Amino acid sequence: MKVLITGAAGFIGSTLGIRLLERGDEVIGIDNLNDYYDVNLKIARLERVKAFDKFTDVRVSIEDRDAVADTFKKHKPDMVVNLAAQAGVRYSLENPHAYIDTNIVGFTNILEACRHNDVKHLVFASSSSVYGANTNFPFSVHDNVNHPVSLYAASKKANELMAHTYSHLFNIPATGLRFFTVYGPWGRPDMALFLFTKNILAGKPIDVFNNGNHQRDFTYIDNIVEGVVRVLDHIPKPNPDWTGDNPDSATSYCPYQLYNIGNNNPVELMHYIEVLESCLGKKAIKNFLPLQPGDVPATYADTSDLQNDLGYKPETTVEVGIQNFVDWYKEYFKI
To answer: Can you give the pTM of this predicted structure?
Structure first.
């Protein structure tokens, strides 16, 4: 297949690109290498992907309507995986317009490009953040998610609604993936594991929000990518049992589907930190802080649909995943 990936220099995008290239697919990678975090890390990720002959590197912002349209017209991808986004819950309180520009305007450009270029399947990143104020655990894709608690979450919920609209109007097969706290080698510097590791090694305090009472369904990067690949190969079909009298939010009368990709095993943040301390051989200095605006105390993915439809359940433990991250971190930063 010819697969176009947006956010190709990102954490998930670069790992997915390598996986698809290794199995023989052709990959068109779009990224603008913005400076939301260390550009050098993005370039280093991209260099790994550019080692493959079947990779095409395209420097485009998805907010640029004409550039996106021209890229799709030139390369005619069979499949599209949209991972480009302005990420981060807390940053959405500081710079809300970035989320509208990339996650709303940019995603509209991707949908329009899919519409006009006969794309056979659009897979797009959503987020566990869409569950917002929900407290019915585990989080199910069949639950109502109309109470987001951050603009980032609202933008991801909007993506799900926008994709459904295009699936309805133009019969574009679309699958949304609600990722749960992705971590592992080549991860994002703005996320907890990266920040904790950096500060612990430097002997600096780590900020522990919600006074350490967080639970997160930490999901290892290789498990995420395996899920994305399986979903990409599984083009959604209309659900014949769907009815407007009792609408199922995870499926539709058109070719549209939502899945959770999580470890289905929430971990206490304090245990996560203890595992990291063990891997580093060094104790953390903890700065306990209250729950931050936009944050939720716990996430917990119901992954039964992913298991039933695709025979897949992420299973990497945090003990294994964190050790792999620490090994990578020390090698990358030459520690």
So the answer is: 0.96
